[in-house]
Every structure is written in structure tokens, then in C-alpha cells.
Amino acid sequence: MPLSVPQRARLLRPLRNLALALLGALGLLWSVDFVRRQDPFLRLLNTVPPELQQLELVLERPTLTLRDGARTLATLQLDRLEIERNRVHWRAVGVRRALIYDERGAVMGTARANELLYNYPAKRLQVLGNPSLHIRRHPLGSQPLTVQATALNWDLRAQRIEINLPTQLRWSDGRGVIQQMRWNLATNTLELERGAFRVSSALLQERTQPTREVDIRWKRAILRNDRSDVEDLHLQDGDTRATAERAEVYDRRRYAIATGTLRLEDPRVDIQGAQLEIWYAENQKRALLQNQVRLRIKPRETQPPTEGETASEVEQAKRYPIDATCDQIEYFYRKKIAYLRGNIQAVQQLPEGRTRTLTADEAEYDQKAERLILKGKVTLEEPDRMRLATSLAIVSLVEGEETVELPQGASGTFYYTEEEEPPPSANP
Fold first, then answer.
1. What is the DSSP letter of 88?
2. H-helix or E-strand containing 169?
3. pTM (2 decimals)?
4. What's the confidence (pLDDT) of residue 40?
5. Angstrom distance (rounded) from CA 384 to CA 364
6. Whose CA is closest to 219, among 210, 230, 209?
7. Rounded Cα gap, residues 227 and 44, in angstroms
8. Per-residue DSSP letters for 272-319?
9. How far apart are CA 167 and CA 195, in angstroms?
10. For 259-271, how does the pLDDT look when each residue is reduced to its tens digit (9 = 90+)?
């Protein structure tokens, strides 16, 4: 049965409405595009580089505050801040000044840099463009520590700043270069890897003396406010060299202790031991070396005898070192006096394979007077020549005046070999 006109109209109405809707959508799109072409601001946006089209905010000379809950971590004064639409990456240009706060809200350091990249979800900062970091409170001294690097990473969640490239450090008493650095902001701890420093010698110089510098190298150092730990330490002070496997420094107490294989060497003395303690306060400059202490006194450089002359026995003895062992050596380096205690034994090699052995209970070495005083049960022995025993011996080490004084006398034995006389001649 054929459909009537009203019935056909009702069936075609949905199709007609759909067609009108499509035409309206096309017209709206055309209108938006037409307006876009006519609006000068939108025409300008089309000329913006693609990397800037991803930005949501561009702020000129803003101040950015970084927080962890209610705690303020840092305040940054910037020349320009760019934030992407996804809010993941932030880029700052010209970090004029950054203030870093501790847990109490006090400023513990400042920084400057040319560029900064911030990953918002990860809470990580990458500081580029030769950043300069000034640490106000640090274990190396009371004056600010300046750190000059090519780049550094700042983890806000871990509260740690890391530098994994060669970095220069400067402070009031020294300067140096390190290969790696980690600064724990929560504990104000500095960890330095493979460093080389040149510092003023607070242990050896007096205030009235000119400035004296010491070169220091190490494999790993952890610097805290109350204590610092150092591994594989090497020290060079003029012609004096010292090494230690491990060292702990308590700067507030003005005390340091080194353990492991220790060695101290200069042109005249070689000292080895297993433990060294140093007290370096103004009124107490003292060092104590103990456990397997070995001491070698090297001979002075003497002029060889002229042609046709024979060197005296004293001059010959100067060319041989003296090797000594004892339980401990206590050295007061302001007065330049050392005390040797416990099982002291010194052996000197002499010409023609002879040896001279000296033993004592205690000994005092006065470096300024070049004098060695032996106390207790003192013995002086040269095999096949003599053996003497006394309670006090004073040995002069002044060049050209090498003498042994026995103020309280001595007892002993001298050895000699009688030479056989030749038989009488048959024809006198």
C-alpha cells in the first residue's frame, strides 16, 4: 500500500535533521577558521616557533618558592620562567639568586646559575650554565665555601645536591679540585671523591710565622659538622710527605686520629706506625704515634774527602742511617721536642759491616738543640769492640760535634784482640 505524503515526511524528517546538523557543524568550523584568519593575535600565534607553542606560562622576573609541605626549601629569583602546558617541565633562565634553607628556616647556602630545568613530578632540578654555589656552614671552616661547577643536580625529595664533574672549591684557608661531590642538606654533610686541596697549615705554623700551605689528596672524604672521615690520605708539606689509610678529624675538639699504615718522611727522618693522634688547639699542639713505631734517621749529605785523604770514623758514620723502634713517640711540635717511650732500640750500620746498637727505656729528642737524651737502662754496644751500660746518656747531633756524654758514669767491657808477636830473629 503506497505511503501517504504525511507518512513520507515523517520518515524523511530524521534524515533532514541530520543533514542540517552536518551543515551547521561545517558552517561553524568555517566560521572559526575565518575568525582565526581575521584575528591579528591568532595570526601572530601561527608564527611562534613550535617549542614555544607548548608553553602555558611565561613569567618575567618572577620569584619561585620551592616547598616540601609547610617547609620552605629554597627561594629563587629568576629573569624568566617558562612552564609547559603539561606542567611537567619548567625552565628558568638567569637564576640571579637562590636561597637554600635548613630545617629551621635559616639560610645555609646561596647559588647562581645561567639556566635551570625543573621536573615537577620528580621534584628534581638540573642547574646548568656554570652554577656557583656558596655554602655558609660547612666543616672546612667558618667562612663560606664556594663551589664552582659546570652543572649540578638537586633532588628536592632526597634533600641532596650532587655534582659528578670536576669541580673547584675555595674557602678562607684553602682551595682545591674534586671529581665528585654530594651535599646532604638534611644533615649538612659533604661527601667529596678524589680530591686535591691546598690549605694553610693550622697544625704546623705559628701566628707570627709567614703563611704556609699544605697539599692534600685523598680518595674519599665525608665532612660533617662534628667529624670528618678521610680515606687514602696523602699530605705534602714542603719536603715533608705523610700518608694514611684512614683518618678521622674532630674539628670542634681540635683533634684528629689516623690509623692503618702510616708514614711520615722528610729529608732527615722516616717514621712509620699504625696509629697517629694529633691535638692542634692553640694551647696544645701535640702528636702521639704508637703501635709498631719505626724511625729512620737519615744521614746528612757530607762532602767526600779530597783525593789522598781518608774520612774519619765519625765522618764515615754520618753516611749510614740509624733505624730505631719503640712503642710510641709523643711530639710537641710547637716546642719541637719528641719523647720516645718503651723498648727503644736503635741500630746504625757502620763501615766494614760493623753495627752499633743503642737501647733505652725512654728518650727525649730536642730538635732545636739537636740533642738526644737517653734515660733508664741505657746500653751502647758494638760487637767485638765494646758494651757499656749507664742510666743517662746525652748524644749531640750537631754536625761536626757528634759526641756522647755520660754524666752519671758507665760500666762495661771493651773487647780487643791481641796480635801475636813475630818470633825472634835467629841472627839478632
1. S
2. strand 167-171
3. 0.68
4. 40
5. 29
6. 230
7. 61
8. EEEEEEEEEETTEEEEEEEEEEEEEEPPPP-PPPPTT----HHHHHTT
9. 9
10. 988 888 877 778 8
| 3-class SS of residue 166 | coil
Considering Cα of 413, then 376, then 331, then 329, what sign does the dihedral take? Answer: positive
Q: Which amino acid, one-letter code, is at 141?
A: G
Dihedral sign (CA 14, 16, 18, 21): negative
With 0-12 CB in 10 A as exposed, 13-18 as middle and 19+ as buried, what is 183? buried
The answer to whether residues 64 and 76 touch, using CB atoms and an 8 Å cutoff, is yes
Residue-level pLDDT at 99: 92
The H or E element containing residue 8 is: helix 5-38
Residue 406's CB is within 10 A of a number of other CB atoms, namely 15
Strands 322-332, 124-128: pairing kind: unpaired
Average pLDDT, the chain: 79
Q: Which residue has the cell 505511503?
A: 3
C-alpha distance from residue 234 to each of 22, 26, 399 (Å): 84, 81, 32
Instruction: Map out the domains of the chain with their CATH numbers.
Output: 53-163 (2.60.450.10)
Whole-angstrom Cα distance, residue 347 to residue 356?
Answer: 6
Tell me the backbone φ, ψ of residue 43, rounded to 5 degrees. Answer: -65, -35
Residue with the larger pLDDT of the pair 26 and 338: 338
What is the rounded CA–CA span in Å between residue 330 and residue 335?
A: 12
Going 386 to 387 to 393 to 397, the CA torsion angle's sign is: positive
The grid cell for 193 is 671523591
Radius of gyration of the chain (CA): 41
Instruction: Report DSSP state, residue 172.
Output: T
To the nearest 5 percent, what fractions of the chain are helix, strand and coil? 10, 55, 30
The predicted pLDDT at position 269 comes to: 77
